[in-house]
Each structure stands twice: as C-alpha cells, then as structure tokens.
Specification:
This protein is 0% helix and 69% strand. Strands 1-2-3-4 form a 4-stranded antiparallel β-sheet, with no helix packed on it. It starts with a strand and ends with a strand. The chain is an all-beta fold. Strand 3 and strand 4 form a beta hairpin.
Length: 71
C-alpha cells in the first residue's frame, strides 16, 4: 500500500477504424486508463483518448477524471 492506494490498474487499447465496404479508412484511436482503489471505498479514474481522423471527421484528444464512492 503506497500513498493510500490499495490497487492500481493500467490499461491501454488501440483501435483501427475501417469500413466493411469500400476500403475506407476512418482513422485510429489510442486509449489509456488508470484506476486506483483508495481508502477502501473510493475508486479514482483517469482516461485519455486520442483519435486521428485520417480522411474522415476531425481529430480529437480527450482527458477526463472521475471518482466513484462505494457505500
């Protein structure tokens, strides 16, 4: 247990978006997530997603934080 963290989880994912017909490239996305269980009843979450639109849509980068309290 370090700094009150009971469990620390790291996750990464990669997505390549392609059309089923027409061989269109919709872009790709990379996602990262960190969750930490702290103080036995609180889970903290940080997420980051980066979408590269290729020839479709608009590039996006998003970051968000959340907390869950279990009772």
């Amino acid at each position: 247990k370090v700094l009150g963290i009971d469990v620390l989880k790291l996750t990464a994912a990669y997505h390549d978006f392609q059309s089923d017909d027409g061989n269109m490239d919709y872009g790709d996305e990379t996602d990262y997530m960190v969750t930490a269980d702290v103080w036995k009843r609180v889970e903290l979450l940080a997420k980051y997603a980066s979408y590269d639109a290729a020839l479709f849509g608009t590039d996006r980068k998003k970051f968000w934080l959340s907390a869950e309290i279990k009772y």
